[in-house]
């Protein structure tokens, strides 16, 4: 039927002991990689947005004149 709370806590501890925690160096490395990729993506989308905005402004300016 239902496991008792003591057995459940024992199973939780057994599962937690299987976890492989990253080293400090791995955490720092992946954090830096994420920040670099976020910066690259933000620059890319800024340039795409700027290009679309400039292109549409030129098209609408030419049509509106």
From TrEMBL:
Keyword Lipid metabolism in record: no
Location relative to the cell: Cell membrane; Membrane
Bilayer topology term: Single-pass membrane protein
Primary residence: membrane
A Pfam family matched in the record: SecE
TM helices/strands, residue ranges: 27-48
InterPro entries: SecE_bac, SecE_sf, Translocase_SecE/Sec61-g
UniProt keyword annotations, A-Z: Cell membrane, Membrane, Protein transport, Translocation, Transmembrane, Transmembrane helix, Transport
Assembly behavior: Component of the Sec protein translocase complex. Heterotrimer consisting of SecY, SecE and SecG subunits. The heterotrimers can form oligomers, although 1 heterotrimer is thought to be able to translocate proteins. Interacts with the ribosome. Interacts with SecDF, and other proteins may be involved. Interacts with SecA.
Record's function text: Essential subunit of the Sec protein translocation channel SecYEG. Clamps together the 2 halves of SecY. May contact the channel plug during translocation.
UniProt similarity note: Belongs to the SecE/SEC61-gamma family.
HAMAP family: SecE
Entry protein name: Protein translocase subunit SecE
Native source organism of the sequence: Paracoccus cavernae
Lineage of origin: Bacteria, Pseudomonadati, Pseudomonadota, Alphaproteobacteria, Rhodobacterales
């Amino acid at each position: 039927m239902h496991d008792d709370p003591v057995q459940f806590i024992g199973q939780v501890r057994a599962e937690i002991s299987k976890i492989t925690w990253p080293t400090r160096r791995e955490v720092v490395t992946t954090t830096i990689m994420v920040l670099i990729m976020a910066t690259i993506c933000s620059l890319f989308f800024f340039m795409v947005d700027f290009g679309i905005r400039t292109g549409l402004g030129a098209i609408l300016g030419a049509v509106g004149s």
